[in-house]
Design goal:
It is a single chain. The chain has 20 helices and 12 strands. With 474 residues, it is an alpha+beta fold. Strand 6 and strand 7 form a beta hairpin. Helix 9 packs antiparallel against helix 13, helix 10 crosses helix 11 and helix 11 packs across helix 13. The chain is globular. Bound molecules: protoporphyrin IX containing FE. The site of protoporphyrin IX containing FE has 26 residues, from helix 7, helix 13 and helix 20.
Length: 474
């Protein structure tokens, strides 16, 4: 009797191949199990995990972490987007991973990220080049530069902008992004605030908001395509600046680009372009986000706003309309607590690394090639680390400020750690503090409508946080 259906040779070959791949994967997973992975959902890629993780934009990474931490502990294994992933909300483990950057682990980002930020975007480069550019960034943003240079620039730009808002209804998130981008563009490329910088701000919004975390589908109409177009425009703009500087090398310009071009061992043009674009992005996107989230918290916490006003009114009275000094800035203690508390609640959610070899830690083995998500959000909202961790409470820093540095270096890491510790951390804190100083001493504000925050991959208000700004005395 003949079979009711017949299989072609290609079908049989395909089925045999598929079974082989399945078997190899099973053997590999069994082998990895024998390696004592952290507990969790091991096995085939789990669709449910991907769906829950993808819901993080609405609820935040913490929402994804909580039930899994209760079940498996602070370090657990899962499969995300077809890849075995170890997620850690363990402060000491995270600190140790960050300290072993380039040795046992390396920074790892999705393909879309490296295409949008370029081959030489800071987080895509490793080894000597990363160390060199990290050094250049530290040099540009060190405390001496902040005192001698940034303090006055930041103050003047923020003072002008805050006064322009009075009496108007504004989308605070967009205003802050443009304001901080203007500051970065001035420092990096010596371009003054102008309509052109506003256009660049829009391009940066497309460049990053559209491109990060989306599927790399290079097709007109997709978010990724829009991001690549924005990248093209920005690359062309930086290259134009390089050409102009080369043609007029006798004119000295006070910006980072000129310094990079004058170096004895000059970096290749494409490295310079990606470095400048990364700094411009990293330097405005994050600080402006902390500013808008600080305002959100203060809007909802009149006692904290009152205390912040008292501190800053006293400083404003002392300076009698003059410029803020470094000592004034250093004396803003409660302001610093507000900034730290906002960074704790609304800073970076996670950092991603990959194991460069089989790594043993905490009685587990993390196999080579495994993705590791360092869940900063999980550490910052862990009740073992902070009392009532979900509450906005700047006063908690009164006692936290006194805690030992190694402990704080592990449980408070809004700027990462190790070889990739954010070189802009001090500038960011300065910018947010001066912004709060001018805002609370000159204005009051009210929300125009409720706005919802997306929490992940970076916290962001859907409608741009619309507020109406009034002069302070009314
Ligand atoms: C509140 C504001 C900011 C936050 C929360 C923040 C956070 C971070 C974090 C968590 C990292 C580490 C990424 C990783 O290890 O995977 C990082 C790296 C970096 N940040 Fe920031 N950042 C801020 C502001 C800035 C500013 C103002 C600049 C520059 C003007 C800057 C420049 C950089 C650069 C260049 C890196 C890459 C360092 C490297 O890989 O060597 N950041 N930032």
């Amino acid at each position: 009797m003949a079979f009711p259906f017949s299989l072609s040779f290609e079908c049989i070959l395909l089925l045999t191949l598929a079974s082989l791949v399945f078997l190899i994967a099973l053997i590999k997973l069994a082998g990895d199990d024998a390696k004592n992975l952290p507990p969790g959902r091991q096995g085939w890629p789990l669709v449910r995990e991907n769906i829950s993780f993808s819901a993080a934009p609405r609820h935040g990474l913490f929402h994804f972490l909580q039930p899994r931490i209760s079940k498996y502990g602070k370090i657990f294994t899962t499969h995300l987007f077809g890849k075995r992933t170890v997620i850690s909300a363990d402060a000491n483990f995270n600190k140790w991973v960050l300290q072993n950057e380039g040795k046992l682990f390396k920074a790892k980002f999705p393909k879309a990220f490296s295409e949008v930020f370029g081959k030489y975007g800071m987080l895509s480069i490793h080894g000597d080049l990363q160390r060199k550019l990290h050094g250049v960034a530290i040099n540009l943003l060190g405390q001496d530069k902040l005192k001698a240079h940034f303090l006055a620039e930041v103050e003047s730009m923020i003072r002008t902008r805050v006064h322009q808002w009075v009496g108007r209804e504004i989308l605070l998130q967009n205003e802050l992004r443009t304001m901080v981008l203007e500051l970065m563009v001035k420092q990096l490329l010596d371009i003054d605030p102008s309509e052109e910088v506003k256009v660049m701000a829009k391009e940066f919004r497309d460049f990053t908001s559209s491109g990060i975390g989306c599927l790399p589908i290079r097709f007109p109409g997709t978010r990724f395509y829009r991001a690549l177009k924005a990248r093209e425009a920005l690359v062309a703009r930086v290259k134009k600046e390089i050409k102009e500087r080369e043609e007029h090398s006798e004119v000295s310009r006070p910006d980072l680009l000129s310094r990079l071009l004058k170096e004895d061992s000059r970096l290749p043009e494409e490295v310079i372009v990606d470095f400048i674009l990364f700094l411009a992005h990293a330097g405005h996107h994050t600080s402006s986000r902390v500013m808008v989230f600080a305002v959100k918290h203060l809007t909802e916490d009149p006692a904290a706003l009152q205390k912040l006003r008292e501190e800053n009114d006293a400083i404003a009275k002392k300076r009698e309309g003059g410029k803020l000094t470094w000592e004034d800035y250093k004396s803003m203690q409660f302001t610093r607590w507000v900034v730290s508390e906002t960074l704790r609640l609304d800073g970076a959610s996670m950092l991603v690394r990959e194991a460069l070899e089989d790594v043993s830690a905490n009685n587990y083995v993390v196999p080579k090639g495994t993705s590791i998500i360092l869940a900063i959000d999980g550490v910052h909202k862990d009740k073992d680390n902070y009392i009532s961790p979900l509450a906005f409470n700047p006063w908690r820093w009164q006692s936290l400020d006194l805690k030992e540095k190694p402990l704080m270096d592990a449980i408070f890491t809004p700027f990462g750690g190790g070889a990739r510790l954010c070189p802009g951390a001090q500038l960011a804190q300065l910018e947010v503090s001066i912004f709060l100083h001018y805002l609370v001493t000159n204005c009051r504000w009210e929300k125009v409508k409720e706005d919802q925050a997306m929490r992940f991959p970076t916290p962001l208000f859907i409608h741009g946080f619309p507020v109406r700004v009034y002069p302070r005395e009314t």
